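hi!! sorry for the late reply, been swamped w classes. u asked for the two structures so here they r. pasted raw, havent cleaned anything up. first the sequence of the first protein and right below it the tokens
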Amino acid sequence: MMEFSLESYKEIILDLQSRGFSFLHPGSWDLESVDLGLEFGDLPDKAVLLRHDVDMGLHASLEMAELEESLGVRSYYFFQLTSPFYSLLSPDSLQIFDMIRMQGHGVGLHLDPSTDLAVHTELDIFSSLAETVEYLPVSLHNPSVTDSDAFVQ
């Protein structure tokens, strides 16, 4: 089994590129083209959409984002507002958040349904940080730890 490192991740990306895979840039496809059958319009046959949940720390995410940028690849980074490991609202964290966005990567909310913060409050706060207008991508953190359905809320 391959050990995960930035170097092995780079090898995976380069291998996929050499096999003719196209990496979708955040915002380069129209979410409204998605129908209920989860079919996307006008996508290449070999398309990759990368996403990363930022659970532990922002510095490693910045390194990954910089590596992806150097390879001409963009992905989505999903950040938590309630992480026990980082505060997205601190000045240092916001600087890293902005650096990742300025490299052309997409950002989304990594929502933890087990926290006491109301879902709509997290969405409002994150939307203001991400300056999103049209849509806000969301991924769930540990969805099985609660009986609550965050998307119903």
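now the second protein. again sequence first, tokens right under
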Amino acid sequence: DVAGASFNWGAKVQQWGCNGTNAQVFKFYRIRDSAHNLYMIINENSGLCLDVERASRDAGANVRQWGCNGTRAQQFWVIDSGQGQYGKRQIVNDN
């Protein structure tokens, strides 16, 4: 969920109860020429990309929305958890 259904760059992304708004709808776009499951994740409401703040590699780093820029802070692996399903905790930043 993008906090407050914000359209602002830097708005935080958070866990939130399901509420049916576009603040909770994300589209996954496969990165061109990616031979693997590498994606940019874009919020339907704002049109902004998920971004690991300051390209941090630290556990617990903030995820926010930001203008799409193609950096590794905005590239995520979607790891197949088996049986053709993608489970929670299976989205990993490429940074």
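hope this helps!! also noticed smth abt the second:
The beta strands are 26-30, 38-43, 49-52, 63-66, 76-78, 91-93.
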